Inverse folding.
């Protein structure tokens, strides 16, 4: 795991980029143009689980007494209401399912956004969120953090609905996307499986892996 100073250097949170051979190997296979949709989906879920393990290591906990077959003992359990996992449609759905394997009691929300092909700005078309967001840890997921526009719009929406603790988890990000998030939401922890070089003139991450949604669902 590597920690990086935020891109704009003005906020207190750190960007976390996972540094692990298992993650690196799976990212390499995700990048490969020959990886088919079925394998691509599996790899996205595997990378999400490995990345979430680090992203969620500081979830709040309490101590409770449990009874084992041998005796009673103090045990550490998650505190408060179950977290909420919010996927940015459509590509974020694959990550939601992966995190539910770790947090099966989590609530699930969806925010539908698409990127205008001309302006590259996000346009919302759907939003359904769990109640009591102010009492839950919010895990916002989207495979790609490119321009940052969708992430910023989704965080805006979550905070407007009452969320006070939001974590952003993406598979691939770039400096421009990180800077956009921190410029508006310096309190949001960002965790990436890989931090790439830059955006190209079409607002795609370089080297990236192409359009994650198209590769997940075979709509190339």
């Amino acid at each position: 795991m590597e920690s990086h100073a935020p891109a704009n250097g003005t906020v207190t949170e750190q960007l976390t980029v996972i540094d692990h051979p298992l993650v690196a190997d799976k990212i390499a296979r995700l990048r490969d143009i020959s990886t088919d949709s079925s394998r691509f989906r599996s790899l996205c879920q595997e990378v999400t689980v490995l990345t979430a393990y680090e992203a969620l290591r500081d979830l709040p906990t309490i101590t409770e007494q449990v009874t084992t077959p041998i005796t009673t003992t103090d045990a550490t359990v998650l505190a408060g209401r179950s977290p909420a996992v919010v996927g940015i449609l459509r590509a974020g759905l694959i990550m939601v399912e992966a995190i539910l394997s770790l947090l099966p009691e989590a609530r699930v929300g969806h925010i539908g956004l698409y990127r205008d092909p001309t302006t590259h700005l996000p346009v919302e078309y759907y939003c359904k969120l769990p109640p009591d967001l102010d009492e839950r840890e919010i895990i916002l997921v989207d495979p790609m953090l490119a321009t940052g526009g969708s992430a910023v719009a989704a965080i805006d929406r979550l905070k407007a609905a009452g969320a006070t603790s939001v974590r952003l988890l993406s598979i691939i990000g770039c400096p421009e996307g990180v800077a956009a998030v921190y410029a508006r939401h310096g309190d949001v922890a960002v965790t990436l499986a890989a931090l790439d070089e830059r955006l190209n003139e079409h607002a795609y991450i370089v080297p990236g892996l192409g359009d994650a949604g198209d590769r997940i669902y075979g709509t190339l």
The radius of gyration is 18 Å. The chain has one domain: 2-217.
